[in-house]
C-alpha cells in the first residue's frame, strides 16, 4: 500500500491489517514512525469532520501539519492540481490528503509524484477512509463482517459511501442491500420499500440526502422523505435486538433519521467519527512505514 | 468553573483567583497541565485579535490547536451548532472556544457535551475573557478595583463589553458609569454629556462604534461622533493625573479616540491585548486543572 | 539585517552570506536558534507556494506558526495594517511575513514595530525572498554569478521578480537582459525579439503572464504570446548546452513555457521551489540570530 485512493486496490488481507492496526491505536498503542513527516490536507470541497478527523490523526502520529487554504490558493490563478501537488512535493510535503470534486482526480497524480496521496473523497466516486471506518465500526460491534446483513438506505447514486462500501463489505463476507427511491437507484439493484428489510438487518446504514447535489430537482419534501425512507421511531422499534444504526454524517435531523434516534442506544453515529481518527492513523502509519 | 460562558456565573472570589493566576503567567510562571490537550477555536464571526490571542494562549499552555474554518465547514450544509460540537467531541477535542452571532448559543451546549466551552463572544451578549482582561488591566494599574470610577463611553446597546463588564466591575467595588447618545442607551442608565464625567474618572473605557451592526442607520458622521463622544486631545487634557484610557479594539482612529492618543502615556489599549493572552491562559488552565 | 523588505537594502556581502547559510541548511545543518519564536504569515493576496514555503521554513526552524486568516480578519472592519501589526506585536508575535497588494506597505511598519518584518511581496514592488531563491538557484548551478548572462522574459512591468532581481543580479556580476513586448516594457530597456538572445544566455528566466493584473486588456491570445515570447520546443533546442530554464511560478503551460519543457532536464522550476524553503530558513535564522 503506497497510497490510498480507493477501496478497489485494497486486498481483503490489507483491510484486515488496517482493522487490526486501528484497534491497536484505539487501545492506546503509540505510533512508531521514525521521521518527522510533513503533511497537508488539500480540501477543495467543504468538510468539517473529515478534514478535522485527518488533522487529529496526523497530530496523534506526531506529523507536522501545514495548513492549505484551497479558497485562497494558486489554483485560483488557474494552476492544475498536478502542478499544485508538484509544488508541494518540491516544498517538502511527505503526505497529501486530498478532497476534490472531480471523480478520479488522483489518476493524474499516483505514480507521478513523490508524496503519499490519500483520497479524502473524489466527487461522487470514492471515500476509502470513510468506508474503512464504517467497516471498522461494524467489526468492532460484531467481531466479524461474515454473514452480517447490512442495509444501505438513501441517496445511493450521489453517495461516495455506497460505492466504496458495497464491494468491500461483500468481499469481507457481509450481505449488502440497498434501499432507495427508484429515481436515485442509478446502476444499483435496490429495494424501494424500506419496511420490508428492517427486521433482518444487522446494520441500517442511513445515507445523507445530498440536497446540494440535486440542483433544486427535489422529488420529495423533507417530511415525505422521512416517512418513506427515513429512520422513524416506528421503524427503529422493528429493528432486531442487536442491530445498530450508522450514518456517515452530516445528518439531516428528521429527514434521514428522527432527531430522537441520533443519540439512542443503537446509534453508532458519533462512534463512527471517533473511530475515523484511529482508522486514519492506521492508514497513514502503515503507508509511511511501508516507505521507510 | 467547568466552562466559561458569561461573567454572571463567576463569583467574586473566582474572578480574584483568575486575576492572580493571570499575574502568575504574566510574571513568567509555566503551565503545569498534565495532559496533551486538544483545542479548536470556532469563530463564526470575524476576529483577528480575539482568535489569535486565544491561539497564543493555547500555544503557551502547550495545547495542540486544530484549525477550524467556519467559512468552509459543514455548518454550510445546515448542520446545527450542537451537532458540529458533538462531532468535534467525538473526534477528540478537549476544549472549544466559540464565537457565534447568536446570543446565548452556549445554552444548547453546556452540560450536554464533554469538551470545555469557552465563550469568545455571543452576539450582543457576553464576552467574558474581554471583561476579565479589562478587569485585570485596571487591577494591574491600581492594585484594586475598590472605589475606582470607571466611565464606559459609546455604543452601549451593541456592545458585548459593556454588558459583561458592568456587573462584574460593580461587584469588585468599582463605580461604573455609562456615557452615550440617548439613541444608543438601550436598557442602561447613562450620561449623555461626556464632558461632565471626565475629570473624576479613573478609567475612560471607550467602546468601538459598531458600524457593521447599525445597518446604515447612522445618526452621526464620524466627525460629529468624535466631537460629541470621542476622546479628543482637549478631553484628554482634562483627565486626572493617574487616569488611564482603555478600548477593546479594533478602534476607529479619530472616531472613538484621536489618533494621537492611541499610543499616548495614558493609553492601555495595546497593554490590554498583551494582558488578554495571560488572562486566557489563566482561564483555560484553571478549567482544565479543575477537570483533571 | 533587522528586517527584509527589499533587495536594495542588502549589501553584496549580505547576499553572499545568505547564499552560504542557505547551502548549509540545504546540506542538512540544523537551526541553532535559542528561543521559542512565534511567527505569523499575513497574506492579504492569494499564494500557495510562497505562503507554504515560508510555513515549511518556519516549521524546520522550530518556530511556532500562528495562523492568520486575512479573509476573516479585523482589517475587514477597517483596521489599518499598522494597527493590525501592533495588535500582533502586543499578542507576542516575534516575526511577521507579510504579502500585501500595496507597494511599499512596509514603510509604515519598519522601525515602528517590534516584530521582524519579512516582505513576502508588495504589489508590483519587491519580493526579496523570491529574488534570493532565484540567485541561489543560479549560484548552485554555476558556482558563481560572475559574467553569467541572464535573460528575463515576459511581463516585466507587472513583475515583482524582475524589479527585485535586476539590480541584485547585476551587483553580483551577472549580465541581465530583458525581453518583452514593447507594450509591457515599462521603464526598462528591453529586447523585443526573443530569438536573438537565446543562444548566448546561461539562464532563461521566464516570467508569469499576470492575467489577473491586466484587467482584460489583453494584447495577445495565449497562442500568440507563446509563439512570440514563450519558451517553445524550437527555442529550447537553440539554448546553449549548459543553459537552464527558470520560472517563479505559478506558470501557465503552453503560454510562457511549452508543457513538455516544464520538467525537462534544463528546467529548474521545481528546484527553485525546493530552494525557496532553505533560502527562507536562512533569512529568518540570520535576522533572529542578529537580534538575540
UniProtKB/TrEMBL annotation, chains A, B, C:
Binding positions (carbamoyl phosphate): 49-50, 99, 127, 130, 249-250
Enzyme class: transferase
Entry-linked SUPFAM superfamilies: Aspartate/ornithine carbamoyltransferase
Residues bound to L-aspartate: 77, 160, 208
Aspartate/ornithine carbamoyltransferase carbamoyl-P binding domain segment(s): 2-139
Domain Aspartate/ornithine carbamoyltransferase Asp/Orn-binding: 147-286
EC number: 2.1.3.2
Oligomeric form and interacting partners: Heterododecamer (2C3:3R2) of six catalytic PyrB chains organized as two trimers (C3), and six regulatory PyrI chains organized as three dimers (R2).
PANTHER family, A to Z: ASPARTATE CARBAMOYLTRANSFERASE (PTHR45753:SF6), ORNITHINE CARBAMOYLTRANSFERASE, MITOCHONDRIAL (PTHR45753)
Function per UniProt: Catalyzes the condensation of carbamoyl phosphate and aspartate to form carbamoyl aspartate and inorganic phosphate, the committed step in the de novo pyrimidine nucleotide biosynthesis pathway.
Family: Belongs to the aspartate/ornithine carbamoyltransferase superfamily. ATCase family.
Protein name: Aspartate carbamoyltransferase
Lineage per the UniProt record: Bacteria, Bacillati, Bacillota, Bacilli, Bacillales
Amino acid at each position: 500500500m503506497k497510497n490510498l485512493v480507493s477501496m478497489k486496490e485494497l486486498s481483503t488481507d490489507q483491510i484486515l491489517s488496517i482493522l487490526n492496526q486501528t484497534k491497536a491505536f484505539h487501545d492506546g498503542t503509540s505510533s512508531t514512525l521514525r521521521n518527522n513527516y510533513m503533511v497537508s490536507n488539500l480540501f477543495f470541497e467543504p468538510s468539517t469532520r473529515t478534514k478535522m478527523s485527518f488533522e487529529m490523526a496526523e497530530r496523534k502520529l506526531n506529523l507536522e501539519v501545514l495548513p492549505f487554504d484551497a479558497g485562497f490558493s494558486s489554483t485560483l490563478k488557474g494552476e492544475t492540481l498536478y502542478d499544485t501537488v508538484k509544488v508541494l512535493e518540491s516544498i517538502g510535503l511527505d503526505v497529501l490528503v486530498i478532497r476534490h470534486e472531480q471523480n478520479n482526480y488522483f489518476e493524474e497524480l499516483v505514480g507521478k509524484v513523490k508524496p503519499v496521496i490519500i483520497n479524502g473523497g473524489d466527487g461522487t466516486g470514492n471515500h476509502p477512509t470513510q468506508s474503512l471506518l464504517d467497516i471498522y465500526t461494524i467489526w468492532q460491534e460484531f467481531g466479524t463482517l461474515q454473514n452480517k446483513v447490512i442495509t444501505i438506505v438513501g441517496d445511493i447514486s450521489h453517495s461516495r459511501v455506497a460505492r466504496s462500501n458495497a464491494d468491500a463489505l461483500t468481499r469481507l463476507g457481509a450481505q449488502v442491500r440497498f434501499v432507495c427511491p427508484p429515481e436515485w437507484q442509478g446502476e444499483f439493484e435496490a429495494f424501494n420499500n424500506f419496511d420490508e428489510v428492517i427486521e433482518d438487518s444487522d446494520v441500517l446504514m442511513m445515507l445523507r440526502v445530498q440536497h446540494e447535489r440535486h440542483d433544486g430537482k427535489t422529488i420529495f419534501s423533507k417530511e415525505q422523505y422521512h416517512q418513506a425512507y427515513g429512520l422513524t421511531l416506528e421503524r427503529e422499534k422493528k429493528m432486531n435486538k442487536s442491530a445498530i444504526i450508522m450514518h456517515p454524517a452530516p445528518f439531516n435531523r428528521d429527514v434521514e433519521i428522527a432527531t430522537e434516534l441520533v443519540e439512542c442506544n443503537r446509534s453508532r453515529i458519533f462512534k463512527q467519527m471517533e473511530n475515523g481518527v484511529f482508522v486514519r492513523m492506521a492508514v497513514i502509519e502503515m503507508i509511511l512505514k511501508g516507505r521507510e
